[in-house]
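Tip: read the tokens left to right.
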């Protein structure tokens, strides 16, 4: 199996095409990335899926495919997307909701085609992939349901929060552009903790 993907949207100077936002943004342009899988004899050639999945799903998916068990001593946020990866007919996302963060704060929630930002702006991603038209005034019931999901997520984070794992002595493979010397290899999550 060969998997090609990225971590999040394009950086400055690069285009997200029809999507609004860039890297670091909670808009789709800051979140959606290409993902291409090739596995002759296992993944039917030419199949596509627009089901919601995340890089967090890769760990549980690969574990399931290998017949391995997931660790029981920690929360695993991802879910297996094996049916989606294998191009199975009627394969659906295991996520009924997906939360977006920006600068370490909850910024939005998506459920199906609907996406609500904390500021109350609502978009239907099926009809408005560029997140241009706020339709919250026309869909108060949808806004209320999604707002309730965000409220529940915030409560869950308060009760079940866990620190980001950073390996001791970690360094990036390539330096950050414009940064000279060893400082260029400091992982983003460790910046300012030196």
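Filled-in amino acids:
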């Amino acid at each position: 199996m060969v998997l090609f993907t990225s971590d999040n949207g394009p950086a400055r100077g690069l285009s997200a095409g029809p999507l609004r936002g860039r890297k670091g943004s909670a808009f789709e342009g800051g979140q959606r990335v290409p993902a291409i899988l090739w596995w002759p004899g296992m993944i039917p050639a030419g199949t596509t899926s627009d089901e919601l999945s995340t890089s967090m799903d890769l760990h549980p998916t690969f574990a399931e495919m290998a017949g391995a068990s997931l660790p029981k001593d920690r929360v695993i946020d991802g879910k297996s997307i094996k049916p989606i990866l294998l191009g199975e007919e009627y394969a659906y996302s295991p996520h009924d909701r997906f939360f977006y963060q920006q600068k370490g704060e909850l910024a939005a929630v998506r459920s199906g085609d609907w996406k609500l930002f904390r500021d109350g702006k609502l978009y239907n991603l099926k009809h408005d992939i560029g997140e241009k038209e706020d339709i919250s005034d026309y869909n108060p019931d949808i806004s209320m349901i999604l707002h309730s999901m965000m409220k529940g997520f915030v409560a869950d984070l308060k009760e079940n929060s866990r620190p980001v794992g950073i390996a001791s002595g970690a360094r990036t493979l390539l330096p950050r552009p414009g940064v000279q010397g060893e400082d260029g290899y400091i992982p983003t999550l460790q910046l300012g903790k030196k």
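DSSP finds three helices and six strands in the chain. The longest strand covers residues 105-111.
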